[in-house]
């Protein structure tokens, strides 16, 4: 996957409609580096739908946020590997043994299938949560401290990076090093609706802070003209 600034954009295709996802993937190809398929798309269309979108030639980030016991996550990664996703997500809250099992399974499964090993990243604290949400579910730490703690744990467990909000980019890079990949949702161009996202920044700000990948969904897909919306963001990043 390219790391030219606008190629760091991964557009979230949150839809159940395979034809719409394929159309968007083709239309957005000049302006972004890949597309993200998540629970909504995969729940409706499964591996067959994934293969149709992959047929457009776009790299695919498969965002299933696996969160289960180590054996189950490892087996799920083996089952998903024939799809050859570029990036795959698990939850850091699954713990160090689960993350280590996921990293090992990714290496072994990619070798068995003969595809490039996907980047395995762990979700830290969802970008839809803020301090009060964290308190409500019983966390004692400040949000940023908890994100950095989970990022360190992910690195020590063998993951390639984490999913975090733009607000924690610099803290994690400082704690885990420049090569530890940061996949960053909660991206909102100036003036666009935040919706359910609580920890947000603009694309330019997130890149300047050091994001490796920007995950952007509704500001592109719900725009009157998604190609124009993506091109505008790409231009903001210097394309
Ligand atoms: O913490 C997280 C983890 C994943 N996501 C996903 O990213 C996209 C964001 O879409 P927008 O429409 O730009 O809000 C979405 O698919 C989420 O599932 C996240 O937002 N936050």
Automatic annotation (TrEMBL):
- Report the HAMAP family cross-referenced here: OMPdecase_type1_B (MF_01200_B)
The UniProt GO MF terms for this protein read: orotidine-5'-phosphate decarboxylase activity
Question: Pathway involvement?
Answer: Pyrimidine metabolism; UMP biosynthesis via de novo pathway; UMP from orotate: step 2/2
Q: Name one Pfam family in it.
A: OMPdecase
SMART domains, sorted: OMPdecase
**Source species:** Emcibacter nanhaiensis
| Annotated InterPro entries | Aldolase_TIM, OMPdecase, OMPdecase_AS, OMPdecase_bac, OMPdeCOase_dom, RibuloseP-bd_barrel
Q: What residues does the Orotidine 5'-phosphate decarboxylase domain cover?
A: 8-233
Give the Enzyme Commission number.
Answer: 4.1.1.23
Q: Which NCBIfam families match?
A: PRK00230.1, pyrF
Q: Kindly identify the residues recorded as the active site.
A: 63 (for ompdecase activity), 65 (for ompdecase activity), 65 (proton donor), 68 (for ompdecase activity)
Catalytic activity, per the record?
orotidine 5'-phosphate + H(+) = UMP + CO2
The terms describing its cellular component in GO are: cytosol
Q: Could you describe the subunit structure of this protein? A: Homodimer.
- Coiled coil where? none
Q: What does this protein do?
A: Catalyzes the decarboxylation of orotidine 5'-monophosphate (OMP) to uridine 5'-monophosphate (UMP).
Asked whether the keyword Lipoprotein is assigned, the reply is no
Q: Which GO terms describe its biological process?
A: 'de novo' pyrimidine nucleobase biosynthetic process; 'de novo' UMP biosynthetic process
Q: What is this protein called?
A: Orotidine 5'-phosphate decarboxylase
* Lyase as UniProt keyword: yes
Q: Which residues bind substrate?
A: 14, 36, 63-72, 127, 188, 197, 217-218
User: Keyword annotations for this protein?
Assistant: Decarboxylase, Lyase, Pyrimidine biosynthesis
| Family the entry assigns | Belongs to the OMP decarboxylase family. Type 1 subfamily.
Lineage at the top is: Bacteria, Pseudomonadati, Pseudomonadota, Alphaproteobacteria, Emcibacterales
